[in-house]
User: What shape does this take?
Amino acid sequence: MTLRIHRLVERMSVIFTLSGRIQADQVPALQALLSSESLDLEIVLDLSHIKLVDRDAVQFLASSEAAGTELRNCSAYIREWITQETNAMQRKETGNAAGLAG
Assistant: This one.
């Protein structure tokens, strides 16, 4: 199974509907795709048809969401994993900031 991407522009948003699985080797292409979009459009990733992700994909989704990308229709297990990765990134940043201050 591969990753399929469908792009739709709706009002002031560009919606990418992703289908299949997201794996580490697809992350750079997804990053390039998102960064190529106009800055005046909100970016939405519709994950309703995503069946499988790996850790690199979850880290990408977590960092994309932190940067302002909306994750829509995310399955419960992927949402929980993203939450765990987000918390881990925040702990790492807090630890790095504490190390610099101390």
